[in-house]
# Entry
Amino acid sequence: MKNKYNKILFFSIFIICILFFSLGYILFSYYSDDYKNDLPNPPKIDKDNLLGNKVDFDKLDESLSNDLLLTFVGDCTLGSDPKFSYNTFHQKYEEVERDPYYFFSNVSHIFENDDLTIANFEGTLTTSNKKAFKKFTFKGPPEYSKILTAGNIELVNLANNHSYDYLEKGFIDTKNNLDQEGIDHFGLGEVFKTELKGYKLAFIGYKGWLDTINIQTMKDEISTFKKEGYIIFANFHWGLEGRHLPIGDQKLVAHAAIDSGADFVIGHHPHVVQSMEIYKERLIAYSLGNFCFGGNSNPKDKRTLILQVKLTNNDENQLSSYFKIIPSYISSTNSINDFRPTIMESPNDRDGFFNFLNDISTDINFYLSDDMINIFSESNI
# Structure
């Protein structure tokens, strides 16, 4: 009987020790690094691999008059959820005396000097009160559309999981209010085609989870635009929130898009910056993160980026593509979200951001920096 009791006691102590050890390991992993809880151990990156790929941004502007500069930013939620009561977007709007220029005032000079600025518009512009049954429903009044024009944003993606927060009426109201302000839009079956400086551009947007996208339909659409001679910017709302690394579904969809003819893949939804990849000489930015985001009063990770893409066409009709990363924060203060995206000025902050971005972007064999980087050069499509 005594031996049986000792065995039970020993086994119980053993199980308790395992539980305590497991709990301690989990807590240590969580608190040891705020931003790298899902990062791999990346291989050492050779910073010299960029030789020949770095481009002087200013000289490129001067030497080519027909170059085209596009700017992409992440999640813009101009409004909030009705349940929010602390530090809301609406409260800030009243605090700045309804000044539409406030929100993008620290970055609008960048947008003003490009040819087209594109944002992911995550929410609605409506007066409707009939909303979807879900955890968060975002909306702002129609006048918030002026914030986009004040910030020099001309085009928005509507393919995301908040476009129908106020059902069909809210979605229609949003598009109508954008139209009245002169803001173009695309996504969820709507394609935006334009020609700028002789470049034919097509912007498409999808909700990119495997249960929300028909991959064959997407491939057929992209193939059609490619045959028509368009440079294709495919935008996807996908992935898992809070993860810095894409899941397999994102890679599958992104690669399928490029295999079908997409020239750039731009991602949204995780609310944090995700890794980048060069696949078949085409850029994939899996998530640009939040930008002017009224959906969270004080996100833990306030890092974001502004992605610029430059297209050039030389006298020999050769198309070249470049990209540039501008590290930024979603707020001008770290203590709270003031809904005012701001460029990182501190050299230490910028170095830290690029170290982080290179750590997670293990599919890129050169060092990401704030240089303009050549992606591809080929006969004009």
